[in-house]
Amino acid sequence: DDPQDRILAAMQSRKMRGNASYLAFTATPKATTLEKFGERQPDGSFKPFHLYSMKQAIEEGFILNVLANYTTYKSYYEIQKSVEENPLFDTKKAQKKLRAYVERSQHTINTKAEIMLDHFIPQVVNTKKLRGKAKGMIITQNIEAAIRYYKAVSKLLDAQGNPFKALIAFSGEKTVDGVKYTEADMNGFPESETRDKFDTDDYRLLIVANKYLTGFDQPKLTAMYVDKKLQFVLAVQALSRLNRSAPKLGKRTEDLFILDFFNSVDDIKTAFDPFYTVTTLSEATDVNVLHELKDALDQVGVYEWQEVEDFVARYFAGEDAQTLSPIIDIAANRFNAELELPDAEKIDFKIKAKQFVKIYGQMASIIPFEVLEWEK
After folding, report:
1. Who has the most CB within 10 Å: 25, 80, 207, 228?
2. What is 286-315 written as a DSSP string?
3. Distance between CA atoms of residues 207 and 226, nearest Å
4. How far apart are CA 222 and CA 137, in angstroms?
5. Domain range annotation of the chain
6. Would the pLDDT of 5 be above 80?
7. Helix 91-104 and helix 143-159: axis angle, to 10°?
8. Does the pLDDT at position 183 exceed 80?
């Protein structure tokens, strides 16, 4: 078969079929989702073809309003003043480094963990919310912070006679203070059991960094303690872990509580506003940006077009990585050494390459024409 025919067949396979219906159900549609599934408006914007808004779902009792009891707890840094008075410091950079150090230090985490438990135990556990089954989630900046929080919370619970247990959730392996940790080792059972174990009465707190911030359905969650920067869709998805209704347990909006150590009220409100009533896409993606990105990438000289053609022909002929890798290695060597590119140019090339792949991947199914060079 002609490689060109194979490429065209691959491109056609991604096109949206005219004789099929595509239905997307999401509470937080991305721009690409609206462009694929939304209805184009006279002004060029896109809107969902049907909307069941967060506002309506709250009013009808299908979900709870997680912002009803949202509050912030602003950290205070006494060291800021001394930094500002020292002309040897680059104040902005110094404050950023100092904040990062303070936020991840075990002492600071111990203090915050104590504040969290001082609320969770008397206000959630002891008041027997959700008939004594209410649970909480601690959202941390990263895996290291999650591990430190887990140690702090476990120590505090141990000192109080272990009224309940906490779990931690993270992917992979992480070394902190020279010790390697995994989720399974810390919890004492396989990672695959974490979700089910947390549903039992033995465990009341779940400590996470990124895992379980989306797609985690646990109606018993009522309290959340946030020590992580949350923006845009992630803010909505993360805080919405609390919005699941639980009629059998008598869960009400009044039972929810979010204590945020990191974000401002305005940041969270801004994140939620587009999704509360309707989300729209202001304009369609300009496919011409793909021409511009490809031209910019071509001009750097990391690859020769004949090498691209050679790679594509071999790829669609079904050749294995052993014959494909040397072609990539030639381009990688130019990028890393031969061209002697400054770091700034290397970063710019990587950014543009990622943008091209992302945008083309999003547009391939909806553009009404084929550009073989983009596919290659």
Report:
1. 207
2. -THHHHHHHHHHHHHTSS-HHHHHHHHHHH
3. 10
4. 8
5. 3-47+283-375, 64-276
6. no
7. 40
8. yes
- Burial class of residue 286 (count of CB atoms within 10 Å of its CB; 0-12, 13-18, 19+): exposed
DSSP string for 187-249: HTS-GGGHHHHHTSTTEEEEEESSTTSSS---TTEEEEEEES---HHHHHHHHGGG-B--GGG
Q: Could you give the CA distance from residue 357 to residue 322 in angstroms, rounded to a whole number?
A: 24
> How far, in Å, CA of 330 to CA of 320, rounded?
17
Two structure tokens written together for 356: 């091209």
In this predicted model, what pLDDT tens digit does every residue of 87-137 receive, in sequence order? 444 445 444 544 554 555 677 888 889 888 988 998 899 989 999 999 999
Placement of tokens 């990391």 in the chain: 302
Rounded CA separation 96/6 (Å): 52
Domain spanning 64-276: which CATH class is it, in words?
alpha beta
Distance CA 270, CA 204 (A): 30
